[in-house]
Design a protein that fits this description.
Helices cover about 50% and strands about 10% of the residues. The protein is of the alpha/beta class and about 525 residues long. The chain folds into 2 domains: about 10-330 and about 340-400, Malate synthase, domain 3 (TIM Barrel); about 415-520, Malate Synthase G, Chain: A, Domain 4, CATH 1.20.1220. The protein has an 8-stranded parallel beta sheet. A 3-stranded antiparallel beta sheet has the order 1-7-8. The protein has a two-stranded antiparallel sheet with strand order 4-5. The chain is globular and about 60 Å long. Bound molecules: acetyl coenzyme *A, the ligand O=CC(=O)O and magnesium ion. Ligand LL5AMS7Z binds near residues 248 and 330.
């Protein structure tokens, strides 16, 4: 690295694991130290600003497109960087945790992009964090092939998908690494290690280091990410603008700053995507105290309800105005063993993708290889040989703040089945997460951190507004725990119950379930430092 050594080192507090030294080399730790040193304090300020904004909105301040950045929106001259190699055509993207089996399957799936997800799809155990980095490095070096003990072979194909890495969000820390007496911010770890080991290798292979940046709340956070990219590129002597990053719009406040987010990242932007599950969670979390934001059961908040249509409409308009890809929402169906149910679910996925393609999206996401062909067929139908439809811009009409915020009066009050469904999804997801699995198939759907957040936040919101009784929730909780325990005797029922109580039944809604659950349950630091 060209610049002088940082004053302070990063310490590894975890016990050494298999091949961890390949990732946690002195030079890689030095790289992390520089990033942690440069951005640790700013992260804290931005998290404080998140809390201040949450308080302002909870106490009735209006949410609107910011006046202070009106000039950015009004300036017609700027565009984001042209699509980078491997990201021109994104008609199908697949997401999944960065374990070896998923990696090979995703890279071979026929999707154009694999979003390797350390955020919603990964329970951040230390083994998963470092194991994920080893997976990525091995995939890029084409040393990922393996055979299972049962003899099933995993071989990387000739034309793998382009890799896009989604680091954990800024609200999370990595407790197994310490800098300056404090844990290193988790996104610095996930991005930094991948960047250090793989950026140049990706460039040599004709791509670049590409990222997806989760759970941003405003333009200042986009600016922070941009500065991280600038420093990371400078430190490794990589030309500025090599990095590209897609930002999922998955908070209600970010929806009001889409254009500004593109602007801040314009040199490194790979557009926006519709992170619609976290978006719903954000709506509940941000306006959970207000009766006019009371949401019905999850199944009733479809992609076609007016406020969700307004959100995706704004996303496509904004992206195409600035020459940026607009990527649709991820389809969460997991094909099972019931052909009839699968056919119905696939028809629904097709309809959703058709709507997105017609609305102007340039591609969309799926959570399972079994959905790749549906998504591809739909986008093939609209795009043909063209890699995208960035030329489709919209001058007609516009999306207002009221369009984005008119949530009330969809659906009726939750049924007992709706309450039970949220409780059971949260419990089963918490159990999987505590055992190191960040995404699971439950009742035909992929559930991950975002949907677990929706499930527990809805229970909290319904209790808050007394549309359900606490006694009923406690009864159903007991029944669901008992049923789950009977079928899964190894389940960590006490921890799961405690997680549910802390995150769904507390007087105030915790902002995320993950930071506290991580510290209490996933951190493994031996007494003696390595
Ligand atoms: C923008 C966003 O919303 S990001 C969403 C974040 N969430 C995710 O990324 C979760 C993605 N999905 C998954 O992780 C998985 O589909 C799960 C965990 C939900 C279900 O996985 P499984 O229980 O293994 O499903 P299933 O048994 O149907 O899998 C069949 C095969 O497909 C593979 N597969 C399933 N999902 C994926 C995936 N997303 N990527 C790659 N391969 C996959 C499995 O590895 C398995 O392969 P194998 O035959 O080689 O063993
Ligand atoms: O990250 C994606 C989402 O829907 O949330
Ligand atoms: Mg999300």
């Amino acid at each position: 690295m060209p610049t002088s050594a940082p004053a302070r080192p990063v310490h590894v507090l975890a016990a050494p694991g298999d091949r961890h030294d390949r990732i946690l080399s002195p030079a890689a730790l030095d790289f992390l130290a520089r990033l942690a040193e440069a951005f640790g304090d700013r992260r804290e300020q931005l998290l404080k600003e998140r809390r201040r904004q949450a308080i302002r909105l909870a106490s009735g301040s209006p949410l609107d497109f910011p006046l202070t950045s009106a000039a950015v929106r009004a300036d017609p001259t700027w565009r984001v960087a042209a699509p980078a190699p491997g990201l021109e055509d994104r008609r199908v993207e697949i997401t999944g945790p960065p374990d070896r089996r998923t990696a090979v399957d995703a890279l071979n799936s026929g999707a154009r992009v694999w979003m390797a997800d350390f955020a919603d799809a990964t329970a951040p155990t230390w083994d998963n964090v470092i194991g994920g980095q080893l997976t990525l490095l091995d995939a890029i070096e084409r040393r990922i092939d393996f055979t299972t003990p049962e003899g099933k072979e995993y071989r990387l194909g000739e034309h793998p998908a382009t890799i896009m890495v989604r680091p954990r969000g800024w609200h999370l820390l990595e407790e197994h690494l310490e800098f300056d007496g404090r844990p290193v911010p988790a996104p610095v770890v996930d991005l930094g290690l991948y960047f250090f080991h793989c950026a140049q290798r990706q460039i040599d292979a004709g791509h670049g280091p590409y990222f997806c940046l989760p759970k941003l709340e405003n333009r200042y956070e986009a600016r922070l990410w941009n500065d991280v990219f600038v420093l990371a590129q400078d430190l490794l002597g990589i030309p500025r603008g090599t990095v590209r990053a897609t930002v999922p719009i998955e908070t209600i406040t970010a929806a009001f700053e889409m254009e500004e987010i593109l602007y801040e990242l314009r040199e490194h932007s790979a557009g926006l995507d519709a992170g619609r599950r976290d978006y719903l969670f954000s709506l509940i979390k941000t306006f959970g105290h207000r009766t006019d934001f009371l949401l019905p059961e999850r199944a009733q908040v479809t992609t076609t309800v007016p406020f969700m249509r307004a959100y995706t409409d704004l996303l496509v308009r904004t992206c195409h105005k600035r020459g940026a890809h607009a990527i649709g929402g991820m389809a969460a169906h997991v094909p099972g063993k019931d052909p009839e149910a699968d056919a119905a679910a696939l028809a629904e996925v097709r309809l959703d993708k058709e709507r997105e393609a017609e609305d102007g999206f340039d591609g969309s996401g799926v959570a399972h290889p079994g959905l790749v062909s549906v998504c591809r067929e739909v986008f093939d139908g609209v795009l043909g040989e063209r890699p995208h439809q960035l030329d489709r811009t919209r001058e007609d009409g516009h999306v207002t703040a009221a369009d984005l915020l008119s949530v009330r009066r969809i659906g009726g009050p939750p049924t007992e089945q709706g309450v039970r469904s949220n409780i059971t999804v949260a419990l089963r997801y918490f159990d999987a997460w505590l055992r190191g699995q960040g995404a699971v198939a439950l009742y035909g759907l992929m559930e991950d951190a975002a949907t677990a957040e929706i499930a527990r936040a809805q229970i909290w919101q319904w209790l808050r507004h007394r549309v359900i009784d606490r006694e009923d929730v406690l009864r159903i909780l007991g029944e669901e725990l008992a049923a789950f325990g009977a079928r899964h005797p190894w389940a960590a029922l006490d921890e799961v119950r405690e997680l549910f109580e802390r995150n769904a039944l507390a007087p105030e809604l915790p902002l995320f379930f993950t930071p506290d659950a991580y510290t209490r349950h996933l951190v493994r630091i031996p007494q003696v430092r390595s």
